[in-house]
Specification:
The chain is built from 28 helices and 21 strands. It is an alpha+beta fold. It has a five-stranded antiparallel β-sheet with strand order 5-4-21-20-19, with helices on both faces. Strands 2-1-3-15 form a four-stranded mixed β-sheet. The termini are far apart. InterPro entries: Beta-lactam/transpept-like (IPR012338), Glyco_trans_51 (IPR001264), Glycosyltr_51/Transpeptidase (IPR050396), Lysozyme-like_dom_sf (IPR023346), PBP_transglycosylase (IPR036950), PCN-bd_Tpept (IPR001460). GO terms for molecular function: carboxypeptidase activity.
Length: 719
């Protein structure tokens, strides 16, 4: 038979390979299903072979994205579908390079991508067994198959890349010949080792070394390398972690024997190595926010915010699905803004005030003014999906049906996502004051503020006086004449309603929007929309839902002399090649994705005037006016020990309590409320907890840093 005679003399193939005429022989000798079953002739097969693609289109394989704290070293978690990190061959142990060749393609350094001897062996073996027992795939052909698989974008492309057909085999041969012309043997080996699947969702040698032996590829020993090389043929069958180690050991020994045959290993070293058992050091690489290390559990809430932020960034795709896919496949190095020291401080202060077993959520967010960098997100909860041992739900209508969200939850209690947040009470007076200052009204704007006021806004219910809204103060001690300093310091409701009437409630709403607030409930969206916003008198008293992240960002604008910065959870996002990830912003500028996004939202003078009045609630002294004799959070200045501004906030029946404070260096917002049942009042006794949490966190976070003072506003805005 012609085919047998051709196969009998391997040397006949060399000239054909060199002359590029291998097609006819390949079709006749290797595509045995076509020859035996389809009767395809060599000439016709050669024509089909030559018509196949000769250029391998290689897309970057999916790689794991790594997320670090602000120090760039502390790993929070990873995101991946296929755990993989590309490493150059120079960072791989010589043992794994030798072992994979010995295991998969002993003639790798001799052939040109298609191995004639392998073809002959495969044909004879398959002819004798009347089936496919050997595939004759060289290491280069295997790489081609993996590259096509990894580059597939549709199920059909995946099927075509992996199906057991002669057409696929011929296509691989055609492409393998081209690959061998384009890359060196070491480059092909590097690509192969970064693409191969080793089991346990470990793609590539970096992930395999980490999963099975908890080490880097460069540190693999001879036995470890032989074990991993043996897995590629059948990762599940030879898995030493889940199967009987007998099969894995036999496969490892097969690799060691081949290494000896190839001269990589002496008989003595081979015998010694084969006598040793497989010793694993398994690890499960973190994946997603639920895998944040247990000792850093509180960081899970920040991680969740990072993920939600990522889903909103057009730089990473046209929609949330594309962006998440990019996160899990893009191989980014993400250095976050999370400061481990500040996070520890905030977590300690929060947990000291309210334990995780409490129905009431007590949380705190810290922002850096002038950059928007989120330095900390702490809450008295455990970041976990397991709610089996959670306490009862605080809503009586739900208590018999579902568990409460404490102590375990993954609900974004601090900001990000779709959760509306909590009513923040009188902290909203900042927006009215800024709107008034922005409209040209000076700090000295004064009103006689009675205990109860008949406003110009429509009203109904208990707070209505003949169809008008009638707000009142929390204490008779607030009655009297006030300017912005004392009105803010004592949180005088009837003063701020008059100030709101003068500037327009819609202007206060617009100011809140300018500083980053978003309306998430149906009621808030309805009331914030013109012309309804002109009648939203209660806005200044904080009846809208808001998150701590938003409030810390808004007050940070005041601390930064009117520069508003979007809250940012990252300081650096690097592509796999080490370059910074970029995007085209709405202005058409090509910028770093992690660059702070800031703008001068209100003038320096307006912000400085607001900061001066904000000294009054904290027990400090304004530079330009009188705070009068008392304030709502007099302990703050003494605790922080440096110039500080801020504002308290409570809602009706103290259903929630807030404090937002800021220095020139940091802004922090803290709350306490029941997120499961907003009508479950926390009580007046709880109102001091957010005050103390913010004050102590600012104090401890800034310890040892130079003291910065606020700049006084100009006389023109004081008057």
């Amino acid at each position: 038979m012609v085919i047998k005679r051709a196969l009998s003399t391997t040397s006949r193939f060399a000239p054909l390979l060199r002359a590029g005429l291998i097609a006819g022989v390949v079709v006749a000798a290797v595509a045995y299903p076509l020859v035996a079953v389809g009767g395809l002739g060599a000439k016709k097969g050669a024509e089909a072979f030559n018509a196949m693609p000769s250029e391998l289109s290689v897309k970057p394989p999916a790689q794991t994205s790594y997320v670090y704290a602000a120090d760039g070293k502390t790993l929070l978690t990873m995101f991946y579908e296929e755990h993989r990190k590309y490493v150059p061959i120079s960072q791989m142990s010589p043992y794994i390079q030798q072992a994979i060749v010995a295991s998969e393609d002993q003639r790798f350094y001799e052939h040109n991508g298609v191995d004639p001897k392998g073809i002959a062996r495969a044909f004879v073996a398959n002819h004798q067994s009347e089936g496919v027992q050997q595939g004759a795939s060289t290491l280069t052909m295997q790489y081609v198959r993996m590259a096509q698989r990894d580059g597939a974008t549709t199920p059909l492309e995946v099927q075509e890349a992996t199906e057991q057909t002669s057409t696929r085999k011929l296509r691989e041969m055609r492409l393998a010949l081209a690959v061998e012309k384009k890359y060196t043997k070491q480059e092909i080996l590097e690509r192969y080792l970064n693409s191969a699947y080793f089991g346990h969702r470990a793609y590539g040698i970096y992930a395999a070394s980490e999963v099975f032996f908890s080490k880097s590829p460069k540190d693999l020993t001879l036995i470890e390398a032989a074990t991993l090389a043996g897995l590629v043929k059948a990762p599940t069958e030879y898995d030493p972690a889940t199967q009987d180690k007998l099969a894995a050991t036999a496969r490892r020994n097969y690799v060691l024997d081949n290494m000896q045959k190839m001269g990589y290993l002496s008989p003595q070293d081979n015998a010694a190595s084969k006598s040793l058992p497989i010793a694993l050091n398994l690890s499960t690489p973190a994946n997603d926010c639920v895998s944040v290390p247990k000792n850093l559990n509180s960081w899970g809430f920040f991680c969740d915010y990072l993920k939600l932020w990522w889903m909103e960034q057009p730089a990473f795709g046209d929609n949330a699905s594309q962006r998440e896919d990019n996160l899990r496949r893009g191989g980014y190095k993400i250095v976050t803004s999370l400061d481990p020291s500040i996070q520890d401080i905030a977590e300690r202060n929060v947990m000291q005030k309210e334990k995780s077993t409490s129905k009431f959520a007590h949380g705190l967010v810290v922002i850096q003014p002038g950059t928007g960098l989120v330095k900390s997100m702490a809450v008295n909860r455990v970041y976990s999906l397991d709610q089996s041992k959670n306490g009862s739900h605080s809503d009586p209508a739900k208590s018999s049906k579902i568990k409460g969200n404490y102590p375990n939850t993954v609900v974004p209690l601090l900001g990000g996502g779709d959760m509306p947040g909590y009513q923040a009470g009188s902290t909203f007076k900042m927006f009215t004051m800024l709107a008034a200052l922005d409209a040209g009204m000076p700090l000295s704007t004064a009103y006689n503020s009675p205990m109860k006021l008949v406003s110009q806004y429509p009203g109904e219910g208990p707070a209505s006086c003949g169809g008008r809204w009638c707000p009142s103060n929390a204490s008779g001690a607030m009655t009297g004449k006030h300017a912005m300093w004392s009105g803010f310091g004592k949180s005088v409701n009837t003063y701020f309603v008059q100030l709101e009437q003068a500037v327009g409630a819609d202007k206060a709403v617009q100011m809140a929007e300018r500083l980053g607030l978003r309306w998430r409930t149906d009621v808030d969206q309805m009331m914030a929309k013109p012309p309804r916003s002109k009648t939203w008198g209660a806005f200044t008293l904080g009846v809208s839902d808001v998150t701590p992240l938003e409030m810390a960002t808004a007050y940070a604008t005041v601390a930064a002399d009117g520069v508003y910065c979007e809250p940012m959870p990252v300081t650096s996002i690097q592509n796999p090649d080490g370059t910074q990830a970029t995007w085209t912003n709405p202005n058409g500028d090509h910028v770093d994705v992690a660059k702070p996004r800031c703008r001068q939202e209100v003038t320096q003078d307006v912000a400085r005037a607001a900061a001066d009045a904000a000294r009054c609630p904290t027990g400090g002294k304004a530079k330009t006016g009188s705070c009068q004799e008392w304030s709502t959070a007099p302990s703050v200045t003494g605790t922080v020990g440096r110039p500080v501004g801020g504002k308290t906030g409570t809602t009706d029946s103290t259903r929630s309590a807030w404090f937002v404070g800021f220095t020139k260096e940091l802004a922090a917002a803290s709350f306490i409320a029941d997120p499961d049942n907003p009508f479950n009042a926390v009580g007046d006794a709880q109102s001091q907890k957010p005050i103390d949490s913010v004050a102590q966190t600012l104090r401890d976070s800034l310890k040892g840093q130079p003291v910065q003072d606020f700049t006084a506003p100009s006389p023109a805005i004081v008057r």
